[in-house]
Amino acid sequence: MRIEMPKKSKKLTDIAEIGEFGLIELLTKEFISKNDSTQLSVGDDAAVIDFNKKNTLISTDMLVEGVHFDLSYFPLKHLGYKAITSSISDICAMNGICSQVTVSVAISNRFKIESLKDLYSGIKVACENYNVDLVGGDTTSSNKGLIISVTALGVPSESGFVKRSGAKTNDLIVVSGTLGGAYLGLQVLEREKQVFLVNPSNKPDLTAYKNIIQKQLRPEARNDIIEFFQESKIKPTSMIDISDGLSSEIIHLCKSSNKGCKIYEDKIPISHDSLQACEEFNLEPTTIALSGGEDYQLLFTVAQENLDQIQNNLNLSVIGHITSSKEMILLEKSGRNIMIESLGWKSF
Ligand SMILES: [Mg+2]
Predict the structure, then answer these.
(1) What are the angstrom distances between the C-alpha of 12 and each of 111, 228, 342?
(2) Could you tell me how far CA 174 lies from the centroid of its own chain?
């Protein structure tokens, strides 16, 4: 994998040449609605969505250049993809499937139409992969930088929506996928940026880091886990998506549910690629999994009776259980207990 630096050959088009409505038309004309719930899409004052008396899940997220992403190594196409999948992930976290999004962008005049088309091409790929319709949004100007706001809409699975607050004593604590990869991918990209600033002709070969970079630049939402719940007739008792690192999310679940937990360090799933990167960067893998963030995996609790079904799914790891005390404990591999709240996850 190579970082593509922007080429300066093609003539670029100012947005002023086609105006806001021309821009909206240009960016959205290839989005074709696929969900029956989408009654009216882009082109009127509002979209019309018919969820047929089902609860509607709505979630909004905003991404700001320089705060949430750095365009010197974040390709716009990937940014569009990530903006959509991270929003879909919030609907998954409610035990729902996302069916519509609105996308609003604020752009400075340094962005030309070609760049925005790149951004929307990533948005389109995500919409196609997740069967989501783009039904509206806004484009406006910003004095500096790029801001993207995505609102995701969906409906809960048949078993109903799941909140953060339903965890019961002795419930299993389960996580999907592996943790820490996205943060480690970011470390590689930040390092290469520093190298590039010193020596712009340096062409880094990032093949060895492909998987973790992909976790950072092109994360996926876990629709597959929601479908698994539906097929296996499992309803989690509480759930959250891991956007800020395992420790902060487990604290949210426990505090909302008025419970404590015991997590086993040796059960936390970390990929082989992440372990290798940790060694190279001299980082503690558990700390990265607990504090890294942006993995967009699901963290949830289920009743003990679901253990067999959970264990049979290779995408899921049981990492601990809910306790009646309010203490949130990590049992280290060494056998030592530490309080999760004292791990200082905020230092990242
Ligand atoms: Mg969330």
Answers:
(1) 9, 46, 51
(2) 18
CA of 61 to the centre of ligand 1 (A): 9
CA of 83 from ligand 1 middle (Å) equals 13
Task: Give the separation between CA 97 and CA 93, rounded to whole angstroms.
Answer: 9
Range list of β-strands (E), 127-246 = 133-141, 147-156, 172-176, 238-242
Q: Which residue has the tokens 């970011």?
A: 186
d(CA 98, ligand 1 centre) in Å:
14
Q: What is the pLDDT of residues 95-121, one digit of tens each?
A: 999 999 999 999 998 899 999 999 999
Centroid of ligand 1 to alpha carbon of 239 (angstroms):
10
Helices 113-129 and 76-92: crossing angle in degrees, nearest 10, is 40
Domains of the chain in sequence order: 15-156 (3.30.1330.10), 172-347 (3.90.650.10)
Q: How far is the CA of 152 from the centre of ligand 1 (A)?
A: 12
Query: Which pair of structure tokens corresponds to residue 162?
Result: 């799941």
Spell out the residues 6+ positions from residue 216 whose beta carbon is closer than 8 angstroms to its own: 181, 182, 183, 184, 185, 186, 189, 294
pLDDT digit string (tens) for 219-231?
999 999 999 999 9
Residues with Cβ–ion distance below 5 A, ligand 1: 90, 241
C-alpha of residue 183 to centroid of ligand 1, in Å: 17
